[in-house]
Amino acid sequence: MASVAAEAARVRRAGGPRALWRPLRGSAMQGLALLGGVVLWEAFGWLLALPWLPPFSKVVAALGQLIQSGEILGNLAVSLRTLVVGFSLSLVVGLVVGALMGRYRRVEQAIGIYVNALLFTPSLVFAPIFFAFFHLSDWTRIAVIVKYVVFILIINTATAIRTTDPALVEMARSFGATERQIFLRILLPASLLIAFAGIRLGVGRAVKGMITGEMFIAFVGLGGVVQKYGSQFDASRVLAISLVILVVALVLGTAVQALDRRLTRWAD
Amino acid sequence: MAVAAARRRRQEERLWAWGLPLGVFAVGAGLWELATINSESLIIPTFSQTMVGLYQLLFQTGQLWGPLLLSNQALVLGYVLAVTVGVGLGLGMARARWLESIADPYVHMMLAMPTAPLIPLVMMALGLGIESRVLIVFLFAFIYITVNTRAGVRNVDPGLIEMARSFGASEADVWRRILIPGAVPAILAGLRIGLGRAVNGMVVAELLLVATGIGNLLLEFRAAFHSGLLFATVLAVALEAIVLLALMRVLEDRLAPWASSVVGD
Lengths: 268, 265
Description:
The structure holds two protein chains of two kinds. Chain A is mostly helical. Helices cover 84% and strands 0% of the residues of chain A.
């Protein structure tokens, strides 16, 4: 029974058996578009010989050198360490504060306006202030990441909790559920769906915060290396590191998406 | 009796709605003042020093206005460019299959990719003038406007288009009567998000590329240990962003008071 229903649901989602080849064609088109972009890049790189647009092959060569010298991996490790600390901090604060804001109207009234205002403000402008507090330590960069991430998480979590069907809560209560049970068994799972949208956005912002913070400090991490080669007018190396940053961003985004699917599969 | 009680309850509610945020502000400011009042730090000012600094910058010395104007030139030019390209590309992608399939992977990449590492390339291409800052503001903003415009047009009920077609509407009619009005809320939301990103771009350009305008002011105050003025400048930029986005919200409510779907942050 269950497997038949699952199969039916799968076919329905895919839009019937005939639709199976459609995404395949789509990704083939995308691959072609990317390949075309690389070919154009290579051609214009050689033809125009602009200092800021080296051919793709030169960028790949520079990437190879940077990987061989260990400059990429070493700095990638430094970058990811601050990313993990900054994102984890934001996640804890974002989920807790967001849940409180979503559940209790007084909390929302008290801090909602500040959370929204801080979400709107440009993040890097606070970097000099973080620098005043933490100087050159890791915490300056971690603070920049938290500034980028935490407010979107708070707002998404609060929205998620608030929009949970009140009838569900009502029913649970009438069956004698405690506040704790309501929170853990109903609000949390239901809000996971929407909160994950915030987490996906948050990961993207975390990578941006990480790189921008590092470029501001200009000593460490991938952003620091970009700044270094940028000041030497070495466009190949700047682009090579940018490619690494792009891959990091895409991989993290995909990982969160996979986690999202796994944790919220019951909602299909 | 019941009416009076209801009115009393409403008044009480209003008191909470105003009192709570003000209370949080007062407690925050008080804690900041207490924590810093005895430190005599050159780097971290007290709350009152920051407020005095803001007053001086805005009204006494007026030191803030020149740099703010300079910074905002790049913001305005870059944002106008981003709106033009972003809305155009978004409309195109929503209606032209071929453009969509070519541009889609790049849109994904640009949404994921931080813009900051491209700044050295912008410098090599355009130098340190206003052109570079305009381009950076543009790069920060346009992709969010594009995806929101695209989402807005796509979310228009295809049944409506079908019906209009069957009554003999041309492609131009469909655009004017159905697609654009239907997409307006999402486009406006995209313009608001894009504006937020544009302000980000303005700040990033000045702190990472070339210290002009506000960025220069920040670095000057930091070098001179005018910490009150430094914090006040940060506060002023934050306030500008908040005011701009609040204005966009008002505009959104005026032009499209119905619900919207939003992509991005």
